[in-house]
Please model this.
Amino acid sequence: MRWPSSQAHIAMAVTCVLAPAPAVAGSTDDDRSAVFGVKLPAGYRDWQLISVTHEAGGLNGIRAILGNDVAVRAFRDGTRPFPDSAIIIRLAWQYVASAENNAVFGQAQSFVPGAATNVQISVKDSRRYAGTGGWGYGQFEDGKLSRSEALLGTCASCHDRAAKADDFVFTRYAP
Amino acid sequence: MRWPSSQAHIAMAVTCVLAPAPAVAGSTDDDRSAVFGVKLPAGYRDWQLISVTHEAGGLNGIRAILGNDVAVRAFRDGTRPFPDSAIIIRLAWQYVASAENNAVFGQAQSFVPGAATNVQISVKDSRRYAGTGGWGYGQFEDGKLSRSEALLGTCASCHDRAAKADDFVFTRYAP
Model:
């Protein structure tokens, strides 16, 4: 998997215009991510839990990874590569100390979600996204789409460094 | 809300025997928690996400809090006290550094679930559990019920210190 060169990048953008994802009632192309044409699926917050993480350092976020039925089934069954139409959603919030909890526990131990930061989405479509390991990416902040192609480039280039045996997905299922 | 005295404790245990929770097909009293008679509901791992936490210090756990439909609706709508039949489930795993992720990120930043430690469950029944704020508790390790009455006492006495306005629940909904 390689992040497309500038030329391929443009070609992929053109492909997205020529072959958009299936239309969703009430949706417009305005809410689809650059390059990949990925949209935030309705009802994603109700999806099943795959795992949780804490990313310390500069990110300083606490996160939950949810999936649609196709993705969750693949995680549970160990199916790799993920089947087409699998969608993985990563929610992130600021990682903040809970003064309320810590007062009860008598020590600084409890860290909880603060303000939501962003939602990242990975959509599997092995043909459409063949140039990026079969995955298309999007990022949404306050439910609004990020239009930064540079940012989406970092999605692909970072996942490119995950193991191919894991189908370029970092997350493991937490039982 | 007060954790019952030893005498009341015994009385409550007797009450549970006299007035067991509605039977679930295939279940026995052997898989119900001491004192409260709480059972691990089938399919709970598929429930919707309420929030995530990191409990540092001695607990050193990363956690997810899930809820059944009644609980999740109450969290989203801000309904307090929670309606009867609300169930909140807290899953916990060891908080471990991800060597794989950190190798990609180039620094020690990523913490993920290790081995599962235990599952705690809170069931709302304002009449049955009137002596403990309307909540009954259970803890399960590897899917097996903890039979420690002392441990269940710590559930109730700790939640007793959460705000009554929050219906003795620590968790806030993470949007």
In short: Chain A has one domain: 6-166. The CA atoms of residues 146 and 170 of chain A lie 22 Å apart. The two ends of chain A are 29 Å apart (CA to CA). The first helix of chain A runs from residue 6 to 18.
